[in-house]
Design brief:
GO terms for molecular function: oxidoreductase activity. The longest helix has 17 residues, at about 230-245. With about 300 residues, this protein is α/β, with parallel strands linked by helices. α2 (about 70-80) links the parallel β4 (about 55) and β5 (about 90-95). The protein has helices at about 35-50, 70-80, 110-120, 140-155, 165-175, 195, 200-205, 230-245, 250-255, 270-280, 290-300, and strands at about 10, 20, 25, 55, 90-95, 130, 160-165, 185, 210-215, 265.
Length: about 300
């Protein structure tokens, strides 16, 4: 039976020369429940100790609809200030371009301010990856590209990415950039499979973009299926999970990582044990038969 290769020990972020772990940890919910600096530091250490060196945050993380904008970055910044040595052990990514209640702003003035504000909150001189969080339809990609290239030239940003962009929006921005995009961050999971067949991942491979998958567990629905389709996908994942002695969660991460585009799943858990558990996905090897069984369950209809 044809086996797919295991993920490599590290992945490159496009052509940036930056090497990252093949799985990432995201901080969307870092500030939940009034988490302290010490508690946040424990989670950072859990990721790093498990070999997860790629950490992804955003300026909007912590915002509850009325307050908290920037709070996740502030909390991580306090962790880094308390232990300066941690910064060199991680590849730090953040995002910007959402300005409640507009909701999106990629005008030159706002982007410059957003980048500076993130660096201030994180208490760092530069970030390894800066991503536009969602596309601003009212911003000309040439104007956006000029600001991002300037930030690269000044050393504030080491590489560039986009999140939630359409293929056309990605291509347009990349066209105007002197420093080409290295990542794209769509929603991808065994329950959200659009990108496998709509061309998004094909474009990523063509342009040399490393895909980062947000919500790789389908917003938690994989762990608690709510309908027949979700149950069928869970059952297909369980076949491989049980064969390898891992959880369904780990099987889901590894299923994404088996794709040739080099998808990097972003672990959303704020639980130290679950973060560490995610790293075991690197040991799960899929056969083509089992991989396609998950895809067919997710499609709900046979392949052509």
């Amino acid at each position: 039976m044809s086996e797919l290769p295991l993920p490599p020990a590290t992945r490159a972020l496009g052509a940036s020369g930056i090497e990252v772990s093949p799985i990432a940890w995201g901080m969307w919910r870092l500030t939940e429940n009034g988490r302290t600096v010490a508690e946040a530091a424990k989670l950072v250490h859990a990721a790093l100790d498990a070999g997860i060196t790629f950490l992804d945050t955003a300026d909007i993380y912590g915002f509850d609809g009325s307050a908290g904008f920037g709070d996740a970055e502030v909390l991580l910044g306090e962790v880094l200030a308390a232990e300066p040595g941690l910064r060199d052990k991680m590849v730090l990514a953040t995002k910007g371009g959402i300005l409640p209640p507009l909701p999106y702003d990629q005008s030159a003035a706002y982007l410059r301010a957003a980048i500076e504000a993130s660096l201030t909150r994180l208490k760092v001189d530069s970030v390894d990856l800066w991503q536009i969080h969602r596309p601003d339809i009212l911003a000309h990609p040439q104007e956006t590209a000029r600001v991002l290239d300037d930030a690269m030239a000044s050393g504030k940003i080491r590489s560039l990415g986009v999140s939630n962009f359409t293929m056309a929006q990605t291509a347009a921005l990349n066209h105007f950039l002197g420093n080409k995009l290295v990542t794209t961050q769509p929603e991808i999971s065994p329950l959200r499979i659009d990108c496998f067949e709509n061309g998004e991942l094909d474009q990523a491979m063509m342009l040399g973009l490393t895909p980062m998958a947000w919500s790789p567990l389908g917003g938690g629905r994989l762990t608690a299926p709510e309908n027949a389709r979700e149950s069928a996908v869970a059952a297909a994942l369980d076949v491989v999970a049980e064969a390898h002695g891992v959880s369904r969660t780990v099987a889901a991460y590894s299923w994404l990582m088996a794709h040739p585009a080099g998808i990097i799943p972003i672990i959303g858990s704020q639980n130290a044990e679950r973060i560490a558990e995610g790293a075991t996905a690197l040991t799960v090897r899929w056969t083509r038969t089992d991989w396609y069984a998950v895809l067919v369950a997710a499609r709900g209809v046979p392949l052509p």
